[in-house]
Automatic annotation (TrEMBL):
Domain ABC transporter span(s) in chain numbering: 2-237
InterPro entries linked: AAA+_ATPase, ABC_transporter-like_ATP-bd, ABC_transporter-like_CS, P-loop_NTPase
PROSITE patterns: ABC_TRANSPORTER_1, ABC_TRANSPORTER_2
SMART domains named among the record's database cross-references: AAA
Pfam families: ABC_tran
Keyword Nucleotide-binding among UniProt keywords: yes
Name the record gives this protein: ABC-type quaternary amine transporter
UniProt keywords, alphabetically: ATP-binding, Nucleotide-binding, Transport
């Protein structure tokens, strides 16, 4: 665990970049420092690996004051990733990644083997190993930066706006990759960003800082969204807090209806029996169970259902895996107001109305079960 205890950083010109900051950064999870430009995020991060020394206060790692540890061994226990990756332009990708193992005295062959292993782990094609950084896209370079930071297998990873310079699609991919790596390797990650959505997506804990280097709130993302500490945090979180918080509730507790579903090859009796439900529409599925579209019951004739005449079913949500936010989005976008739930293979497992989703949202909020992070 990294413990920041009443730390202040005053630069020689008198600027107070960080002001009496205290934080307990939990082990094996992602802690995000977020806040407006100049609020002291980078300074805080750099104090953790002693690129910047605090003016007052202490930082300890597993109970030991880092000020008393040799800088070299401290930095070796902490990978560091920055914006634009900061790769060595004249070294190949594999040698960039192998840098720290080589410094640690590994043979060239062993260091390169490790580098190739890491390329795979961060989702880089092995064919890129002999290229130079300028021959890679921005997103690929960031992956190399992450691989290089992981090379000596440090328990801590410090990341300073690592994904800020890439477009939103690539960024989402990098974020997913980081969550996967974190799950697999269980590193303690301290991540700096000015983007609150990124903070909410990645953070186990989020520290919102305000100008002047003070802590505004330190909480899990779902709690930030439900109970911002003050007007500054509320303003920084931006619009749609309620909707965004739904991302933290799983959809698996939604009661699904199975009756208003008919297969393309349904008999007249099956259509008739499905039509006597409350649902004003029936969902037609292909024979393999994948959704085709909605129809009013009276328009369906056994043996003569034309898929192209059905109403679009929109974007289904994966039951249990996607969140209540995804389910609500499906229902809102559906021409019938009903959302389609599918399994991992895309087969329909049920349908659910906007009204039922609304009830589930109310009871989830009441129970406050927002502790588990879910996709979508
Ligand atoms: N070496 C320095 N000397 C003097 N002031 C500095 C120095 N480095 C940073 N500062 C000031 O300290 C404050 C905090 O800077 P810091 O880089 O930590 O903020 P930040 O939150 O990371 O900002 P950004 O999101 O813009 O990168 C700013 O006012 C900055 O101008």
């Amino acid at each position: 665990m990294i413990r920041i205890d009443s730390v202040t950083k005053r630069y020689p010109d008198g600027t107070v970049a960080v002001d009496r900051l205290s934080l307990e950064i939990p082990d094996r999870s992602i802690t995000v420092l977020v806040g407006p430009s100049g609020c002291g995020k980078t300074t805080t991060l750099r104090m953790i690996n002693r690129m910047v020394e605090p003016s007052e206060g202490t930082i300890s790692l597993d109970g030991v004051d880092i000020g008393r540890q040799p800088v070299n061994s401290l930095r070796r226990s902490m990978g560091y990733v920055i914006q634009n990756a900061g790769l060595f332009p004249h070294r190949t990708i594999v040698d960039n990644i192998a840098t720290v193992p080589r410094l640690l005295g590994w043979t060239k062959q062993k260091a390169r083997e490790r580098a190739r292993e890491l390329m795979e782990r961060v989702g880089l094609d092995a064919a890129l190993a002999r290229r130079y950084p300028y021959q890679l896209s921005g997103g690929q370079q960031q992956r190399v930066g992450v691989a290089r930071a992981l090379a000596a297998d440090p328990p801590v990873l410090l990341m300073d706006e690592p994904f800020s310079a890439v477009d939103p699609v690539v960024r989402k991919g990098l974020q997913e990759e980081l969550l996967r790596i974190q799950e697999e390797l269980g590193k303690t990650i301290v991540f700096v960003t000015h983007d609150i959505d990124e903070a909410i997506r990645l953070g186990t804990m989020v520290a919102v800082m305000r100008t002047g280097g003070r802590l505004a709130q330190f909480a899990p993302p779902a709690e930030l969204l439900s109970s911002p500490a003050d007007a500054f945090v509320e303003d920084f979180l931006g619009a749609d807090r309620g909707i965004r918080r739904l991302s933290f509730f799983p959809s698996g507790a939604l009661p699904l209806e199975k009756t208003p579903i008919v297969a393309l090859d349904a008999s007249a009796e099956q259509i008739a029996s499905r039509s006597s439900t409350d649902a004003p529409y029936l969902l037609v599925t292909a024979v393999d169970g994948k959704p085709l579209g909605w129809s009013e019951p009276g328009d369906l004739i056994a043996g003569d259902i034309e898929p192209e005449r059905l109403l679009p079913y929109g974007r289904p949500f994966e039951y249990g895996k996607d969140s209540l936010r995804a389910a609500l989005d499906c229902a809102v976008l559906s021409p019938t107001g009903w959302a389609v739930a599918v399994d991992g293979a895309g087969r329909v497992v049920g349908v659910v109305s906007q009204q039922t989703i609304g009830e589930a949202i109310r009871s989830a909020h009441a129970a406050g079960r927002a502790d588990e992070k879910v996709a979508g």
